[in-house]
Amino acid sequence: MCRALPAGACRTRTFRLHWRLRQEVCASITAKSDQACARLLFLWYKSGSSLVPERHLRDARELSLNSDDILRLASLLRAARRTVVFTGAGMSTESGLPDFRSDGGLWKQSRRFEELASVEALTSDYPSFVEFYRFRIRMLHSVRPNTGHELLADWQRRGLVHTIITQNVDGLHEEAGSRDVLNLHGTLRRIRCQRCDSDMPASAFLEEQGTRCGRCGGPMRPKVVLFGEALDAQVLEAAMGAARQADLFLVLGSSLQVSPANALPRLAVEHAGASLAIVNREPTPLASLSSVELRAAIGPSLAALDRLLTRGLAEAPPAL
User: Fold this and answer.
1) Which partner from 21, 148, 217, 273 sits 20 to 30 angstroms from 52, CA to CA?
2) Per-residue model confidence (pLDDT) at position 101
3) Is the pTM of this model over 0.85?
4) How do the domains of the chain map onto residue ranges?
5) DSSP assignment of the chain, as one string?
């Protein structure tokens, strides 16, 4: 490991370290024995080296600066009998999917996301609706679950997480192995007929004949909740039931701006007396209700938590 070598010797191994950086540095920031390696990478960056990607350095520094909160959240996870996880767009952006709602998001320049992902577009501008959702479905072919998705699936298998609720429609939680995910806004993985409700895999929508129902001739559309539609009542009721039973409600990558989904954390805190933990790079309106708030990336944060949970580390590392 680099911590055992002088800086000059480490520099000759930069190429190998560059490829190991994503897996090791962001996770090892929580391990006291690896602090020298993280500090060395930081010094390389400050000296102008282009071999240490800035985003990895940012993740490492975020974890170091949030180390006390990471330890607190690890304690909450250990003690919780029923942990409910709620994920938003930030979970998907770490897999490379854009946040279509953001100011710099795709389609913002010509048509707003809300205009295209709507019942109005479906009924009055179907060609644009089809183009937009074909684009989104194709994007799923190039992305995979990230570290956060994979760790949540593993925690669910280990009994650390009991319910996963998501605002995302990409199906990455299921692809990572999570089960019984409550998809509040539906899924892009399947399409259905607007008229008779028959459904099929979303790949059919990419073909010309896939835009019309083979049974009744009605227009096909993704099985997502469009603007102008209500959430599925059964899914929402299941999510509310999970929130009422939670003793830890963990929010990952959501700005908590979209209603009625943003009522779930408040329901968990005020009805069930749950602890609220939030991991999101931007501030949220429920920060005052939270026991822990991490302004950091999700994947590295969960990797740090996993190390604490599996190795039982009890000491916070010093800040860089």
Assistant:
1) 148
2) 58
3) no
4) 2-65, 104-142+195-224
5) -GGGS-HHHHHTTHHHHHHHHHHHHHHHTT-GGGHHHHHHHHHHHHTT-SSS-HHHHHHHHHHHHTHHHHHHHHHHHHH-SSEEEEE-HHHHHTTT---TTSTTSTTTTTS-HHHHSBHHHHHH-HHHHHHHHHHHHHHHTT----HHHHHHHHHHHTTS--EEEES--S-HHHHHT--S-EETTEEEEEEEETTT--EEEGGGGGSGGGGB-TTT-PBEEEEEPPBTSPPPHHHHHHHHHHHHH-SEEEEES--S-STTTTHHHHHHHHHH--EEEEE-SS--TTGGG-SEEE-S-HHHHHHHHHHHHHH----PPPP-
